[in-house]
Amino acid sequence: MASGAIDQGRRNVRDKAQERRRKRGRGARLGRADRTPLGTWFWEIDRVLLLLVTVLIGIGLIAVAAASPAAAMRYSNANLTFPPLYYFYRQAIWIAIAVPVMIGVSMLPKPVARRAAMVGAGIFVALLALVPMIGNEVNGAQRWIHLGPVQVQPSEFLKPLFTVTLAWLLSLKAKDGSLPVIWLSFPMIGLVAFLLMKQPDFGQTVIFASIWLLLLTLSGAPIRFLAGLGAAGVGLIISAYLFYSVARTRIDAFLGLAEDGAQIDSYQTDSAHNTLTNGGLIGTGPGAGTMKFRLPEPHTDYIFSVIGEEFGLVACLAIAFIYLAIVVRVFIKLLHEEDDFLLLASAGLVAQFGLQALINMAVNVQIAPSKGMTLPFISYGGSSMVALSIGFGLLLAFTRANPYLNRSPYVVKWNGR
């Protein structure tokens, strides 16, 4: 009987210990002891980046609401009339789809995220090749494909996926210096650039090429090699101006000169600049803008100008600061990154994100030619919103870190006594 009581006591102790371990593993919801996938993700994710992108999405929804009446009026006709907030409601639906996509991608383990991005890059290169054959022409450019009820722009999805694939290829140099990874990257960027120029999409070609050059630089390409590429790039830009009508038209419009030296139409950029400055420092107020009704694409390419008119130049500066904060935040984190792939992938993704924002804002303030490029997470567009969410989800996944992993157990802190 005594031994039976002892065994029962041991079982009770063991059961209590298991219960304590179970509770400790479960922990408070999103508390430091929470070991669920969501809890682990919450404490490993860069919550500052997550907050900044959430703010951008919120600003974007407000901005689309401001631009929606102008866009609805522009695209309405005798046979079809769009409600004033038509684009606002559609954007809200796309955000409801895109945000879970971003969170889901950011929860992927880094190797899984890398493999998924590489597979996705192959799929969207194939779709990009199909655009000239089955794509739809919009505003003189053939960039869209209908996949059932959804219209997709393959180049938007390809940008982050191609960046990750290129980062993986260049990171192999650290493992085996004899691999010709730099030369292997030439046909990759060449194929993408060729397919983009056929659409034509000069702006996206510039972004792809810029990210390629950045990753080559970070991967340790020789200075002379990079200088040669820079000279070749200048030559290609001159050639594009001379022989590529789309580039020549955009640059001529930006400079305000036609081939015979006469002034040409710069209505789009002039309207954007006039709208941006019409609100002054604090803006005319939500819904009170009038110049936005003259903009060609108030809800997409020129939404930054709508923000300037209704919310003022102060709001524009605040948005520019948020983009800058995201880029700086990531590059500061990368100062301590030792994995070559993670460094290249994260740098490429955030540079792509920041460069797209910079180009859009530069066009709106008339310091760059019109490129037909959206403002990340702010401009209207389902394809753009989902693609950006995938890209930012990959960035969040690659910058995830255990805050205690690299902390030395031998650090002694002074307790003040």
Spell out the blueprint of helices and strands:
Layout: H1 2-26, H2 37-44, H3 47-75, H4 86-106, H5 110-134, E1 136-138, E2 141-147, E3 150-152, H6 154-175, H7 181-197, H8 202-218, H9 223-243, H10 245-255, H11 267-278, H12 303-334, H13 340-364, H14 382-398
Antiparallel strand pairs: 1-2, 2-3
Reported for the largest beta sheet, the result is:
3 strands, antiparallel
Distance between the termini: 55 Å
Mean pLDDT: 82
Approximate shape: globular
Strands in their spatial order, largest beta sheet: 1-2-3
How many domains? The number is: 1
Question: What's the short story on this structure?
Answer:
The protein is mainly alpha-helical and 417 residues long.
List keywords for this structure.
68% helix; transmembrane helix; 417 residues; three-stranded antiparallel sheet; peptidoglycan glycosyltransferase activity; mainly alpha; 14 helices
Care to describe what's here?
With 417 residues, this protein is mainly alpha-helical. The chain has one domain. The chain is 68% helix and 3% strand. It contains 14 helices and three strands. A three-stranded antiparallel beta sheet has the order 1-2-3, covered by helices on one side. Mean pLDDT is 82; it is low at 407-414.
